[in-house]
Write a structure and sequence with these properties.
Blueprint (H helix, E strand, L loop, with lengths): L3 E4 L1 E7 L8 E6 L5 E5 L12 H14 L4 E6 L4 H13 L3 E5 L9 H8 L3 E4 L7 H17 L4 E3 L7 H20 L6 E6 L3 H16 L7 E6 L2 H4 L2 H14 L12 E3 L12 H14 L8 H13 L8 E5 L12
Parallel strand pairs: 4-12, 5-6, 5-8, 6-7, 9-10, 9-12, 10-11
Antiparallel strand pairs: 1-2, 3-4
Helix pairs in contact: 1-2, 1-5, 2-3, 5-6, 5-8, 6-8, 9-10
Bound molecules: pyridoxal-5'-phosphate (PLP).
Pyridoxal-5'-phosphate binds next to helix 2, strand 9 and helix 6.
């Protein structure tokens, strides 16, 4: 049975889906001499883990508040967000529908295999993974169809990136700062992979809220490494999302687009197109700490951290946290 609790504002319901706090591991020295730390959000637990568990705690809280009878979401063929939504649906006993790019494969693999094991219904659209607007249209159509046939769907946009979903990373920001305090260091930079922008927006909301409440506190630079063209070109939409989250938290302070740093130099050709830097970062992380990165998200994000380190961004003895956002299942697919 789902445990529900209220956070910050009486209106916000959160269901327990993730195993929190996730570990913050020391990762030794970067080539610059900066200290590397790995925030293990690949270990959030839900349906083999990843960043979406934090968002889903709030998105599913919203679904239960709305008396939803099923969940719908949308993503790329190997979407981690879809797989984790399927896992949340299984935990909460809510039938789950996934609108996916691509055609139905002969054999399900990776995230699709897991989603199907969790009991989700997969709707293959034949669309390209980068065709976000038509994928969203397909989600809207399915939502209408299911509503007409008497269901009450809770329909979640790509990546779970709404103001409500981003609450998961506003609270993660607090969790990180509290772990830094316990481990006796001040974090200078937080680096992570950004795609649909909700993780980024939540962290920015957390940062802005902390800054407003503690103006003297030294706070980290928040650096998103963009792996999809949509968000990489769009700091203003991330700031907008952060502001929705701040409103939900009852805050009056606001983010603006200058607060949002997205580095799109490590994306390569496009979403999911492999890069040599990501392949090298995967080996670096595996040898250094047995951290397992995936080629679509976390390896590109980590290649951005190593690349910015090589360019002299981080000074010796500064503290840099990489949020490992997960993505493990797509390592196990044949091409
Ligand atoms: C493993 C992984 N890392 C990072 C991200 C990016 O998170 P967001 O969509 O919140 O930007 C995703 C999104 O699907 C993901 O699956």
């Amino acid at each position: 049975m789902a445990r529900r609790r209220c956070v910050a504002q009486p209106k916000i319901t959160r269901v327990t889906l993730a195993t929190l706090p996730t570990p913050l591991e020391a990762g030794g020295k970067l080539p610059s001499g900066a200290n590397l730390w790995i925030k293990r959000d690949d270990l959030t637990g839900l349906g083999v883990g990843g960043n979406k568990a934090r968002k889903l705690e709030f998105l599913c809280g919203e679904a239960l508040d709305n008396n939803a009878t099923c969940l719908i979401t949308v993503g790329a063929a190997q979407s981690n967000h879809c797989r984790m939504t399927a896992a949340a649906g299984a935990r909460l006993n809510l039938p789950t529908h996934l609108v996916l790019s691509g055609v139905k494969p002969k054999q399900l693999e990776g995230n699709q295999l897991l989603s199907s094991m969790f009991g989700a219904q997969l709707h293959h659209t034949g669309l390209d993974a980068s065709d976000w607007s038509n994928l969203e249209l397909a989600r809207a159509e399915l939502t209408t169809d299911l509503t007409k046939s008497g269901h009450r769907p809770h329909s979640i946009p790509i990546g779970g990136s709404t103001g409500v979903g981003a609450l998961g990373y506003a609270t993660a920001f607090d969790e990180i700062i509290s772990q830094c305090n316990t481990q006796n260091f001040v974090v200078d930079s937080i680096v992570f992979t950004t795609s649909s922008g909700g993780t980024h927006a939540g962290l920015i909301a957390g940062l802005i809220r902390t800054r407003a409440n503690n103006p003297q506190k030294v706070l980290p630079k928040v650096i998103g490494i963009g792996v999809a063209k949509g968000v990489a070109l769009n700091p203003s939409s991330v700031a907008e999302l952060a502001n929705e989250t701040l409103t939900l938290l009852g805050e009056t302070v606001r983010a603006n687009q200058d607060d949002v740093l997205i580095d799109a130099n490590y994306m390569g050709g496009d979403y999911a197109v492999p890069t040599q830097a990501a392949a090298d970062a995967t080996i670096w992380a595996a040898h250094r700490g047995a951290w397992v990165l995936d080629p679509v998200y976390s390896a590109k994000g980590f290649s951005g951290l190593l690349g910015r380190d090589a360019k002299g961004e981080f000074s010796a003895d500064s503290n840099v946290i990489f949020i490992h956002t997960g993505g493990l299942p797509s390592l196990f697919i044949s091409h």
